[in-house]
Amino acid sequence: MRHPTKPILEVLSGNRQQIPPVWFMRQAGRYLPEYRALRDRAGSFLKLCFTPELAAEVTLQPIRRFGFDAAILFSDILVVPHALGRRVTFEAGEGPRLEPLDEASKIKTLRTDVDASVLAPVYEAVRLVKRDLPPHVALIGFCGAPWTVATYMIAGCGTPDQAPARMLAYSQPAAFARLIDILVDVSSHYLAAQIKAGAEAVQIFDTWAGVLPPREFSAWCIEPVRRIVENVRREIPDAKIIAFPRGAGASLPSYVDGVPVDAVSIDWTAEPAFVREHVQPRVAVQGNLDPIVLLAGGDALDRAVDDVLTNYADAPFVFNLGHGILPETPIAHVERTLARIRQA
Ligand code: 1CP
To answer: Which is deepest, 12, 130, 279, 290, by most CB within 10 Å?
Structure first.
């Protein structure tokens, strides 16, 4: 890792690439027929995550088909609550369901360390992927940020603005802080273990960062992720870390000031001139094609791809979506996008 030669690792080291490296959030998933076939065979989503051979195969599927510059380990942010002993299920077409952690008394009795044997297959999947990865492709591990994972643990599912977690943070701040502390601790170990198993970078997904007012954003998004980055770097000083504070908007400069990551992943609502002036001089940027325009295709897609390149590719930049690829996305639109990025 000290002498990166893979394009995405170069960018994470601050070296702009002539043709930006590209990968897509959720690139392994339901828009791929080969994923759907394997998911059917595996039975449950968690079985897919925790069977190393299957998780490795699903991770590699989009690499074989499209030649992305990075593979993202196939798993889910909710394996961490699962390893903390919470019941987690994924119903087809419904999204995740957890037993809600909706009272301070339930947080007081939550275990503070994960069951290591539950997460061991994840590290084995990392090793298997590394064995079969083309030489220029990097493997990215990941976890959810404490705030985002807490929102699902508290509500028991995704909600439009994660109000249950915001409510608990205001009304039971000590219990809420305890939950965040536990998640900081286990997520730090989880990321370090993925890197030790062979992940060359890690991404911290804070999907729900955008629903918090500034004071809470600082307390529950910036501070916990800063502590995770510090903990991981204490163990692995040159660890490459990307953060995705979705919806951070005008708070992006204070985010990159507070969280010393190698890259920040931005969503499609970011204002380009603002990002160029206040974010890109400090840190590499990743993003931010609207997943809906990838679904729409045609001239609108070509224009949007060109806009992203014009806006951000003059500085260290990783091409990605502004959020996960949608299951209905035609494969031809992904191919068209990659060809356009690489034609230059
Ligand atoms: O039926 C299925 O196959 C389940 C669909 C699915 C998939 C393919 C889920 C359920 N998770 C995943 C994989 C996944 N999740 C990856 C794999 C690697 C890749 O990117 O290819 C990753 C990185 C995640 C991360 C994740 N899970 C996030 C953060 C990023 C994001 O997209 O916002 C979140 C919020 C989750 C929770 C989750 N898991 C699954 C769903 C449908 C959701 C979202 C729930 C919601 O709020 O609606």
So the answer is: 12
